[in-house]
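Q: Start with the shorter request: fold the first protein.
A: Done. Sequence, then structure:
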Amino acid sequence: MAIEPPPEALAELAAVVAPLRTAAPDLRWSGRESWHLTLAFLGEVDEQVVPELDTRLGRAAGRHTSQLLAIDGGGAFPSLARARVIWAGIRGDRPALAALAASIAAGARRAGAPPPDEGRKYRPHLTLARCKQPLDATQLTRPLAGFTGDDWTAASISLVSSQLGSGPPRYQELARWPLKPAPG
């Protein structure tokens, strides 16, 4: 389950990330077409649960309002000194985003597709690169730390399928549900 930033927001981030790719070509950089804000990772989903999952995720989306977000800052997991993942951050109403992510996870669990990452603290981000071996990403993430993109409205959530292979993962949107319009 994901929120997909608009092309303009992704273009802003791509301009910052381009020199980083050149500086660290050995990392597995994800393409801008795969950048999304994960709300809940579902793993393998049995085809039999898909109809109930569709219903429950639609209900969950309908209980939450659209979000004003921006791509903002960046860093590394689990730490800058031992990075395995380089990421761009998200600015917005974090409690509202966490509530949306929890609602999505609960709906998936009730449908029979429990998220394997349920219960972890929600940290909204876009994954930019993965490292085969832990590395010190302090210098690499410095340009991201000062980056602040323009605001955009997340008005829907998407069910996204990932196809893994020898290259970077490929993502395909399977379904989309609108969030409630924000008041005012």
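Q: Next, the second protein, separately.
A: Sequence, then structure:
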Amino acid sequence: MFVVDGEHGLSVRALLEDRRPGPRSAIAIAPYWNVNQAGEVCLGSMVTPRSAGLASLAEWVEAFFQSEFTHAGAVKITSHHEGHLGLWRDLAGRQALPPEWLIPAGTLEEWSCRRS
């Protein structure tokens, strides 16, 4: 789940259930490269869209996945016993990320309220 705003740039969280989220949906730290514990994305080489509006969200998501993922950061963003690198190694060939490897981060509503 991605959020774009002019003040924070791009942020991302993972959903703990594979269904449309609501305010009380449980979320987790998204264990992507270039993402910190707060979900903020280090933009690095990412070519960012000109707009931060809702209409450009798909462009932001595409830009995120087309960027050069360079670092996992020095923070814990997964509960995998071998850390970030072990997580991505063990994900090879899997269809889904096991939820037990995610670190809970409250609810969608809590995250949204902290961002305002």
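Q: Describe the second briefly.
A: The radius of gyration is 14 Å. Strands lie at 2-5, 9-15, 26-29, 104-107.
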